[in-house]
Amino acid sequence: MLNVKNLLAATAVAFGLMAAQSPAFATDTAKPTIVLVHGAFAASDSWDGVATILQSDDYPVISVANPLRSVSGDASYTRSLIDNIVGDIVLVGHSYGGPVITNAAKGAANVKSLVYVASFAPEKGETIAELAAKFPGGTLGEALATPIPLGNGVNDLYIEPSKFHAQFAADLPADKARLMATAQRPVTDFALNEPSGDAAWKDLPSFHIFGTADKNIPPAAMTFMAERANSRKTVTIDGASHVVMVSNPDAVADLIIEAATAK
After folding, report:
1. 27 three-state secondary structure
2. Can you list the domains of the chain with their CATH numbers?
3. CB 82 within 8 A of CB 91
4. Nearest-angstrom CA–CA distance, 182 and 200
5. From edge to edge, which strands make up the β-sheet containing 61-64?
6. 163, 11, 126, 32: which is closest to 80 by C-alpha?
7. How many CB atoms lie within 10 A of CB 5?
8. What's the CA gap between 196 and 103, in Å, rounded?
9. Which residues are paired to 79 by β-bridges?
């Protein structure tokens, strides 16, 4: 019987085999493929606004359905995808997706740059929980619902729907935030406490964007991580919430295009 980690590895391998056989991962454009990795409590459609802008500029775009089970397993899943893409890649991560791209891109010859969108950019050995608590201002813990036990001491975490708007998406209309709360994807507490592996941002140029009103990750923490990574460019959006890619898709898309065209 497979344990969770083995199941994730098997899924990654299976996904990689499917990708290798699929023409969707081979592009005819000279432009890099933009691979978007969503974070916890979100879904791949959180990138819809950004993807629409990028596609209108003829960038091939893939929005990954991030499993949100473990940093190492989710990075392997993402790596199986990028290893089967022809041509250069700009790898973009939101929130928990930041540690995923940080690990997935390590040693990947076709990833040319990393874009961190309201995101964690961990050093080797750091955990998301550790980074979230490093600076004051984060209130995610107060907004979480009762954990759902999965067995073996692992729990699924959700944001309490009644608190989702204020915590996660305060700069969005209430109706939009309500739909996002309904469709939110859970993350395991194991993923939030798993130490990160080697950091790809040490070898690749990184670009960072986040809002000043983010309540999931303190802006001071994201500033610290961007400076530590020698960010090529850091953009702050005044008053933007944690879902800056939903509320400000143009600014996020502009930074991704800058990362794609940087020399």
Report:
1. coil
2. 4-20+31-261 (3.40.50.1820)
3. yes
4. 33
5. 61-64, 33-37, 89-95, 111-119, 206-211, 233-237
6. 11
7. 14
8. 7
9. none
Over the stretch 65-74, which tens digit does the pLDDT of each residue have?
A: 999 999 999 9
> Which helix or strand (DSSP H or E) is residue 154 part of?
strand 154-157
Tens digits of residue pLDDT in 123-180: 999 999 999 999 999 999 999 999 999 999 999 999 999 999 999 999 999 999 999 9
The structure tokens listed for 189 are 């507490």
Q: How far apart are CA 209 and CA 115, in angstroms?
A: 8
pLDDT for residue 84 is more than 50: yes
Cα 59 to Cα 51: distance, rounded to the nearest angstrom: 9
Which pLDDT score, from 0 to 100, does residue 9 have?
A: 41
- Of 256, 244, 138, nearest to 192 by C-alpha is 138
| CA–CA gap between residue 200 and residue 179 (Å, rounded) | 34
pTM of the model: 0.90
* Local structure of residue 144 (DSSP, 8 states): B
Neighbours of 225 (CB within 10 A): 27
Average model confidence (pLDDT) across the chain: 91
Q: Are strands 154-157 and 187-188 parallel, antiparallel or unpaired?
A: antiparallel
Q: Residue 30: its pLDDT value, please?
A: 87
Fill in the amino acid letter for 25: F
